[in-house]
């Protein structure tokens, strides 16, 4: 990547120490993704570190998901760089790594000391204020491995690269010191609202902070100067450079902290930093189609805090409790996922943060009062497009929302439903997102099916019937569209981008959308509609089966009706909602025949699994492969687990020529992924 480094240097974390210093790198999980999530909390706080050789060191720059951050320790007067490139001192070696649903942990060998470095991006299912606060923790502990006491100082900085994709732009900054904590903040001198350059927001403020502890120092200024100063003295000057200038004016503007831990054999009290990116407002939202009236919406956490300083103090002082909550949540997630397989548990740990980077917002009335009945969430289609609440991406993240807190799915659906229920929205089918692509008529079948399935999944799993009641007429209109259009198609594009005639997999999504509506009607007391839609779904299913099943093809579903080419197939990932929601449309025998067929396909699968459709020239998709696994007959758990392991194989590899965070699209034999557009960090 040519981008200059984004120094998001968060630096050290927990030590795990190993008594063997010469050791090979070990992953606590045998899981070695090429890129580790470091700070993954919002569309613009989404940083990773690439370790192409997957083992030896963190002495590369951390990067924004598509791009590009520094940490040093000084031990017995010698500087060791635990993260990032260049700078003073020796490089370090990673001994172990571990990825949990909220944390990436590294233990790094620096001379005779092991540093435990933890990047912690909280997931807070019970508390919307906490969930909406776009901050992460970085913590470091240290242990001597030779039994002797060592003198340890820690350093970490971030650069102003966080606030613009154009490093010639002028930054302004300040350091705020209170009795309990210190924070640096930086933003552009001339921020540009709702604008981004190379996926970095041009209207954000970056914060880097820590609690006041004994022997801490801080400084702002040119990165190289501060790093050298720390390398030679082990401390900073408690000063601010007040000459505002370009982010990179012959040296990057940076914001640093140093802590002198003193001399010991074990430093078990973590040194904790907090990093955040705040945009305010976060979105301009148009609730009514055809209207020019937009709302400036703010992050939900503002309902509880009158100033960012208070919010940062609360976040810093909550650290110990946050770790405890995360530990309990992770035990629950990991044991549930382990009941499927170890590969599945690793994938869930890897993907959870990534699926939860939405902005959670609230509106205010003209007097500034918060409207608690108007909480909306906005998801960015990271790594693929810049679309907002892209329906197929929301659908792919539906399971994580349903598992953690089904209400979150409703907060994402509400803006889509509200907009399309307004009189200015004239189409009889659902839009694929909030705005950008609504002109394309080829993607309405998949969007309409997904919306009905998600709206019912939200109501059923959260027990909250508000959306299905409020938008009943809209949902019914959409269902009528599906009744007429699902079975036979000649111009529709599937969720994986194919545009074939009469796609079996796309048709079943539409049919299951109708079946979901039958349950919505039943739940809202619309019994006549329930009966009619149930009968429609059942009739459509029978015809679908007759068109899509072929006796010459051993009973598996054909990729398109009548396509009996011996080698043609599609992964029927759209059967998943039947299973998820207990819709009872698809017969067990069909599930069983599919599972048997996938089992045969798996024998000749590429190194990275199966393409989602033989007409796609070997392209595979992680989300849809997992949805296929989720729609396997209960009697075929072996085949289900094989599909999971195919996705694991790609996540756990450095095969791509373009190194980068785990993409959704990749070649089933080479692992290569298009850049951009492969769904990196999606
Ligand atoms: C560092 O991490 C390892 C592995 O989790 C742990 O055993 C060790 O106690 C940690 N060291 C410190 C100082 O926290
Ligand atoms: C991938 O990792 C292996 C070690 O597992 C290493 O030998 C190889 O060079 C790496 N490939 C790239 C592209 O860095
Ligand atoms: C660390 O740096 C010092 C001073 O530059 C050098 O003498 C020493 O060999 C280095 N140690 C390692 C393990 O790289
Ligand atoms: C889900 O989130 C909402 C909103 O924050 C909260 O009121 C509710 O208690 C959460 N429910 C569960 C089951 O965690
Ligand atoms: C609060 O939001 C709800 C849902 O959008 C809306 O119906 C209501 O009018 C709003 N209340 C005020 C006072 O704006
Ligand atoms: C779709 O399938 C139906 C039923 O087999 C067939 O009659 C129709 O011609 C197909 N559509 C196209 C455009 O080929
Ligand atoms: C759907 O149900 C309605 C009402 O029962 C019926 O008139 C219509 O023919 C059905 N459509 C299909 C495609 O089954
Ligand atoms: C996948 O890789 C194979 C082998 O290099 C190549 O033939 C094929 O075109 C690739 N597919 C895509 C979608 O790039
Ligand atoms: C598997 O079993 C569960 C629990 O009994 C059921 O809800 C689900 O529909 C079954 N899945 C399939 C594909 O039959």
Automatic annotation (TrEMBL):
The keyword Lipid metabolism does not apply. Pfam families: DUF5127 (PF17168), GtaA_6_Hairpin (PF16335). One of its GO terms (biological process) is carbohydrate metabolic process. Gene3D superfamilies: 1.50.10.10. Residues 102-335 form the Glutaminase A N-terminal domain. One of its GO terms (molecular function) is catalytic activity. Keywords: Signal. Coiled coil: none annotated. Residues 341-675 form the Glutaminase A central domain. It comes from the Eukaryota. The keyword Signal applies. Residues 1-23 form the signal peptide. InterPro entries: 6-hairpin_glycosidase_sf, 6hp_glycosidase-like_sf, Glutaminase_GtaA, GtaA_central, GtaA_N. This is DUF1793-domain-containing protein. It comes from Gymnopus androsaceus JB14.
């Amino acid at each position: 990547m040519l981008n200059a480094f984004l120094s998001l240097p968060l630096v050290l974390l927990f030590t795990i120490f190993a008594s063997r210093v010469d050791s090979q790198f070990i992953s606590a999980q045998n899981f070695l993704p090429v890129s580790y999530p470091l700070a993954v909390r919002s569309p613009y706080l989404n940083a990773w570190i690439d370790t192409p050789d997957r083992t030896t060191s963190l002495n590369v720059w951390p990067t924004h998901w598509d791009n590009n951050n520094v940490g040093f320790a000084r031990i017995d007067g010698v500087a060791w760089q635990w993260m990032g490139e260049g700078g003073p001192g020796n490089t370090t070696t990673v001994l172990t790594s571990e990825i949990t649903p909220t944390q990436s942990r590294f233990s790094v060998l620096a001379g005779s000391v092991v540093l435990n470095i933890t990047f912690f991006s909280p997931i807070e299912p019970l508390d919307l204020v906490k969930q909406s606060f776009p901050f992460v923790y970085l913590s470091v502990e240290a242990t001597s491995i030779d039994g002797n006491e060592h003198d340890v100082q820690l350093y970490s900085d971030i650069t102003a690269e966080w606030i613009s994709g154009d490093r010639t732009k002028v930054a302004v900054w300040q350091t705020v010191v209170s009795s309990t904590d210190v924070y640096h903040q930086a933003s552009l001198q001339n921020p540009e609202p709702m604008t981004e350059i190379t996926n970095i927001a041009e209207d954000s403020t970056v914060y880097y902070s820590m609690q006041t502890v004994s022997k801490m120092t801080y400084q702002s200024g040119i990165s190289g100067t501060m790093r050298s100063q720390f390398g030679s003295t082990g401390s900073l000057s408690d000063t601010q450079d007040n000459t505002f200038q370009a982010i990179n004016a012959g040296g990057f503007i940076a914001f640093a902290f140093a802590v002198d831990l003193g001399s010991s054999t074990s430093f078990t009290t973590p040194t904790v930093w907090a990093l955040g990116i705040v945009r305010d407002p976060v979105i301009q939202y148009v609730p009514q189609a055809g209207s020019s009236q937009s709302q400036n919406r703010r992050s939900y956490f503002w309902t509880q805090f009158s100033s960012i300083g208070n919010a940062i103090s609360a976040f810093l002082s909550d650290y110990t409790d946050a770790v405890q909550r995360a530990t309990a949540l992770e035990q629950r997630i990991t044991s549930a996922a382990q009941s499927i397989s170890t590969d599945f548990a690793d994938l869930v740990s890897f993907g959870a943060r990534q699926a939860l980077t939405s902005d959670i917002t609230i509106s205010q009335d003209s007097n500034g009062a918060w409207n608690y009945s108007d909480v909306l969430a906005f998801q960015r289609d990271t790594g693929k497009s810049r679309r907002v609440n892209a329906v197929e991406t929301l659908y792919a993240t539906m399971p994580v929302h349903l598992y953690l807190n089904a209400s979150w799915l409703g907060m994402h659906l509400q803006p889509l439903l509200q907009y399309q229920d307004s009189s200015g929205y004239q189409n009889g089918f659902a839009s694929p997102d909030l705005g950008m692509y609504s002109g394309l008529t080829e993607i309405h079948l998949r969007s309409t099916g997904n919306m009905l399935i998600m709206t019912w999944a939200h109501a059923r799993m959260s027990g909250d019937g508000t959306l299905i009641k409020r938008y009943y007429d809209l949902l019914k209109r959409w269902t009528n569209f599906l009744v007429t259009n699902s079975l036979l198609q000649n111009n529709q594009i599937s969720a994986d981008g194919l545009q074939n005639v009469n796609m079996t997999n796309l048709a079943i999504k539409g049919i299951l959308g109708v079946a979901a509506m039958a349950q919505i009607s039943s739940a809202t007391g619309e019994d006549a509609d329930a009966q009619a839609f149930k009968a429609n779904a059942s009739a459509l299913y029978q015809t679908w089966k007759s068109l899509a099943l072929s006796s010459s093809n051993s009973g598996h579903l054909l990729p398109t009706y009548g396509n009996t080419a011996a080698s043609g197939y599609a992964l029927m990932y759209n059967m998943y909602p039947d299973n998820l929601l207990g819709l009872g449309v698809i017969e067990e025998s069909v599930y069983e025949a599919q599972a048997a067929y996938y089992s045969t396909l798996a024998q000749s699968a590429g190194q990275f699994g199966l393409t989602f459709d033989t007409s796609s020239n070997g392209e595979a998709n992680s989300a849809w492969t997992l949805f296929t696994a989720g729609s396997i007959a209960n009697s075929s758990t072996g085949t289900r687990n094989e599909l999971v392991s195919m996705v694991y194989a790609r996540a756990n590899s450095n095969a791509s020529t373009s190194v980068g965070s785990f993409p959704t699209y990749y070649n089933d034999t080479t692992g290569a992924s298009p850049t951009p557009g492969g769904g990196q960090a999606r």
